[in-house]
Design goal:
Number of helices: 14
CATH topology of the largest domain: hpI Integrase, Chain A
Shape: globular
Strand content: 5-15%
CATH superfamily of the largest domain: Intergrase catalytic core
Number of domains: 2
Oligomer: single chain
Structural class: mainly alpha
Order of helices and strands: HHHHHHHEEEHHHHHHH
Strand order of the largest sheet: 1-2-3
CATH architecture of the largest domain: Orthogonal Bundle
Radius of gyration: 24 Å
């Protein structure tokens, strides 16, 4: 594929992604990976695999190639030449309520304490926390508005009384205008990288051995709600999951719920004679 042909195709692909409202980062990733023609697809995938590319990179490349050939070039048959790699989902790392309390107490400064408290208290993604605006906090209805979260969907999550107190303390101290958590330049919001660094610092100060990230707080939020017997469909809505199967993963890490389930052996204990084995 010559440079002369690539230029208009590149522009057309950008237009196709813009029409479908792809996020800027997604557009950037897609454009970076369009490096193969139809005939080169198999060799390109082989090159990535042989080079040690991880599963996320390989699957992102497949998504890119499928979009480029199917949408931009109108070659739907390319799907037959690509294959996603499916790997077993690992259980997420979850903090206990006591660990969350220690973690939040160890955060470096009010700004990060409030931001990370929002991540846990409302179960938000890091991208959703940093994108919050002052106007998104609705203290009358006790909800937080998440505008254009993952999948370009708006949703509401609960605003707890304690979180509202923290947010008011932060507003009184910093008087943010526009962005709830402004960056070094108030015109821009705090970056996800800044929040992750604060998260690392808090985990170290709290002496938590688990691998902790802002997303760990979201996992902990969902797991703790499940352990409080919150309906899993409600948790699905709060998290903004498109599929219930995604939310159902937390049933595998809700250890409090698991511990409280009575074993069938306990139900028949009184019926067993001492020293005898249970019937087969």
């Amino acid at each position: 594929m010559t440079d002369k042909a690539i230029s208009p195709l590149r522009q057309r692909m950008i237009e196709d992604m813009t029409i479908r409202k792809f996020a800027p980062k997604t557009q950037h990733d897609y454009l970076q990976r369009v490096t193969a023609s139809f005939e080169d697809v198999r060799r390109y995938q082989l090159h990535l695999a042989a080079g040690g590319a991880g599963v996320p990179t390989l699957n992102q490349s497949v998504s890119t190639l499928r979009f480029f050939f199917k949408i931009t070039l109108g070659r739907a048959d390319i799907v037959n030449h690509t294959q996603f790699i499916h790997v077993p989902r690992k259980l997420p790392v979850v903090l206990s309520p006591e660990e969350v309390a220690r973690f939040l107490d160890a955060t470096p400064g009010l700004k990060y304490k409030v931001a990370l408290s929002v991540a846990y208290g409302a179960g938000l993604r890091v991208s959703e926390v940093v994108a919050l605006k002052v106007s998104d906090i609705d203290s009358k209805r006790m909800v937080i508005r998440i505008e254009q979260g993952k999948g370009h969907k708006d949703r509401y999550v609960m605003l707890s009384p304690h979180l509202l107190e923290l947010l008011r303390a932060w507003y009184k101290a910093a008087r943010p205008q526009g962005w709830l958590f402004p960056g070094m330049n108030p015109v821009n919001p705090m970056t996800a990288r800044q929040l992750r660094r604060a998260c690392d610092t808090a985990a170290q100060m709290a002496e938590i051995d688990k691998r902790v990230s802002p997303h760990t707080l979201r996992h902990s939020f969902a797991t703790h709600l499940l352990e409080q017997n919150t309906d899993i469909r409600v948790i699905q809505v709060l998290l903004g999951h498109a599929k219930l199967d995604t939310t159902a993963l937390y049933t595998r890490v809700a250890t409090k719920t698991i511990r409280e389930i009575m074993s069938p052996l306990d139900r028949i204990t009184g019926k067993l004679k001492e020293g005898t084995e249970p019937p087969a």
